[in-house]
């Protein structure tokens, strides 16, 4: 499921894969067909498909931080979002579905102390956080406030 998830993790067909994952978790947990499986994900310690995509995006940006520009590169003002990476403006919706756009948006939701961690520590902390919350969509992660 995680093979090249950065390339196809935001595609519309991912809903089908996530539906299959939820079905498998329901079977493993012995839940009924329409039962909520969020608690089953947390008790089994399995990342949901959106959480796996979020994790890969965060690790991708952390490994390639030099390839992205930060908000402080644009000006010298002391704003509250100066440590965040700059999300490039995209006129077309197709460009907003790109890997770089979503990876930067997801990475910016991390706290500054979490961003300062090395890759190994960041990955373990992110996995722990994502397993605990079992996000069912990326929007749910973005609306949750500062992560980790």
Topology (elements, then pairings):
Elements: H1 5-8, H2 14-29, H3 38-44, H4 49-63, H5 93-96, H6 99-107, H7 112-115, H8 119-133, H9 138-143
Can you give me a brief rundown of this structure?
One of its GO terms (molecular function) is helicase activity. By secondary structure, the protein is mainly alpha-helical. The chain contains 9 helices and no strands.
Mean pLDDT across all amino acids: 88
Total DSSP E strands: 0
Which oligomeric form is depicted? single chain
The proportion of residues in beta strands is under 5%
Q: Write the H/E string, N to C.
A: HHHHHHHHH
**Structural class determined from secondary elements:** mainly alpha
Q: What coarse outline follows from CA principal-axis ratios?
A: globular
Low-confidence stretches: none
Report, as a whole number of angstroms, the end-to-end distance: 24 Å
Comma- or semicolon-separated keywords:
single chain, 148 residues, mainly alpha, 9 helices, globular, ATP-dependent RNA helicase DBP7, hydrolase, nucleotide-binding
Give a verbal description of the structure:
- One of its GO terms (molecular function) is helicase activity.
- This is ATP-dependent RNA helicase DBP7.
- Keywords: ATP-binding, Helicase, Hydrolase, Nucleotide-binding.
- It comes from Lygus hesperus (Western plant bug).
- By secondary structure, the chain is an all-alpha fold.
- It has one domain.
- It is built from nine helices and no strands.
- The longest helix is centred in the first third of the chain and has 16 residues.
- The protein is globular.
- The mean pLDDT is 88.
């Amino acid at each position: 499921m995680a093979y090249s998830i950065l390339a196809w993790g935001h595609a519309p067909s991912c809903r089908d894969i996530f539906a299959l994952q939820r079905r498998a978790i329901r079977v493993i947990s012995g839940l009924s067909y329409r039962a909520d499986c969020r608690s089953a994900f947390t008790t089994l310690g399995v990342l949901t498909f959106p959480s796996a995509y979020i994790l890969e995006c965060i690790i991708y940006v952390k490994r390639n931080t030099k390839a992205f520009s930060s908000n402080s590169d644009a000006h010298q003002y002391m704003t509250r979002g100066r440590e965040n990476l700059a999300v490039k403006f995209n006129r077309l919706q197709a460009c907003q579905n790109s890997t770089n756009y979503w990876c930067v948006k997801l990475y910016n939701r991390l706290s500054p102390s979490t961003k300062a961690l090395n890759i190994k520590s960041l990955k373990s902390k992110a996995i722990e956080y994502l397993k605990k919350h079992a996000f069912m969509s990326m929007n749910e992660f973005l609306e949750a406030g500062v992560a980790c």
